[in-house]
Prior knowledge:
The complex is a heterodimer. Chain A is an alpha/beta fold. Chain A is built from eight helices and ten strands. Chain A has helices at about 45-50, 75-85, 100-110, 115-130, 145-155, 175-190, 200-205, 225, and strands spanning about 1-15, 15-30, 35-40, 60-65, 65-70, 85-90, 160-165, 195-200, 210-215, 215-225. The radius of gyration of chain A is 17 Å and the shape is globular. By secondary structure, chain B is α+β, with helices and mostly antiparallel strands. Chain B has twelve helices and twelve strands. The interface of A and B includes residues 78, 81, 98 and 110 of A.
Amino acid sequence: xxxxxxxxxxYTSGQGExxxxxxxxxxxxxxxFVAIIGKSGSGKSTLLYQMSLLDCPxxxxxxxxxxxxxxxxxxDRVRYRLAEFGFVFQEYALIPSLTALENVMAPILMRSVxxxxxxxxxxxxxxxxxxxxxxxxxPSQLSGGQQQRVSIARAIANRPKILYADEPTANLDTATSKxxxxxxxxxxxxxxxxxxxxxxxxxxKMAQRIITLSDGMIVDDSQKKKRV
Amino acid sequence: xxxYISSIMxxxxxxxxxxxxxxxxxxxxxxxxxxxVMTLTFLNLIVIRGILVGLTQGSVAAYRxxxxxxxxxxxxxxxxxxxxxxxxxxxxxxxxxxQAVSQRYTGAGTIEADYRKVVVRDEEKDKASAVVVGIDPExxxxxxxxxxxxxxxxxxQRSMKDSVLVGSSLLSTYSAAxxxxxxxxxxxxxxxxxxxxVNNSVREVTIVGVVKAKVQTIDSRVFMLDSDLRPMxxxxxxxxxxxxxxxxxxxxxxxxxxxxxGNGVDxxxxxxxxxxxxxxxIRDISATFSLLGDVIGSIGLAVASITIFIVxxxxxxxxxxxxxxxxxxxxxxxxxxxxxxFQSLFYAASGSAAGLAIVYGLIVPYFSGNxxxxxxxxxxxxxDIGSVSVRVxxxxxxxxxxxxxxxxxxxxxxxxxxxxxx
Lengths: 228, 422
């Protein structure tokens, strides 16, 4: 489903060039739950940004269902993300002027769904993450864990093919982190493809497959079965 | 094409969704301040021009209401008077929309006070030049309401032979300053007997009233009964020099003119609507003031646009990260741009609505009841719906553009850079 081919990302600054990703190659099958792990600066978030089309690689290609995504225009990439991806950001990234329900509704409305239908689907998503009773709250009235669950509800509201999560538990305590990961596990059980970046091995172990990055290169790519 | 339109409609809908909530949950004081600035801008756009145009409109209205009427007939070029005056008057009396017709005899003359006094050597006579007008007081009253413009004395009656009304510009007592090339009587007031000379014919007349109409043509005239002036002019044929017509509405001017022209009156007189009869200098001043109003309004519009630009730019810059997130979750740039355009529109519409309430609820009624007392007119406030609507639309368009540009600048930045604050 997703094929990463010779993926390279180089940043150019006044001090010269810095290659963050070095010719990565791997595939992710539909329905897989993949954790990308590595130390800070290993390139794991950069990899996620390339795969989720938030950034363009310097070299190589990312094929999704046979489509070469790197050649898309910025506008096409926005449309593609809306149609195919969900994204859970590290710092929740909710819009402060929208309630929990409205945050979840926004991407649904963008898919030309009627207001009433979008509202019902957003409530459904919030129910899935256990926040139906907080639908009318603004982000400022929610705890960090609740905000992250709203972020997940928003990410899954359009029933995406792939759910990307960038350190979704980074700002959460252990108990809340486990609640969030339980939601991911539950989604995975229902067939959701998930690609999650984390620096915590404990959380990465909940994934079906772990890709370990170090200095922009894949140093390990192990399936759960093998690990067991 | 259908898909493209549908995509735009979706962006409009999402933009509205985002804008509505942004406005609803914005700081009330910030919103109030922006709307207040927009209201002031709107007033700047409408009021300054309204007063400037009102000054000249007051003159235009005064010239029409107090001198020409809605239709004005004067002698053809090279002619001294309107030949066969009874013909156009007969036609006018049969036009339904004509309410009154005033026929005037005019002649150049002089008036002299203290004319019995022995003039010492080098002493100037108390004498002034004037246009002397012979009127039917009742007809003139119906057309111009001349009696309402008296500032002293009483109006002419048919029985008042050898009596005159004198324009305030001809009397020092009532004239603030003597204009270049004009002279005034120094020792004349109500009840004074003055010597009137027209066409070498001399008559002693008594001043019974003083007229001040804020129309120089009127204020520099001497009015007397037509029956008194006609013999002095030797006008035995009853042909007059001016015919002023009052119609039911000032909009009937073209109808009356076309009837007159259709009956061949243009062979006897020059027929003008009240607008055509306006002196060139009033037209020039009107055009100049209107232009001046537009220039000042344009500056106001630029200020409004810059205000909105700054407000939206600051808003968009401080929310750059959220704009990036919106794009990150698949909200199209166009929807975000529409969101900011709707917000701008809201500020402009609210400011305009408050401005309209002030203009039509306070300013217009106030100026209607209390015209500004300018020396040359009663300054009214002009805020006709047509021109105000045009300015409201211009303000809306300007603010929408001013909202769109900064939003576009931020939306066009790379999504990831916006999210990460790079």
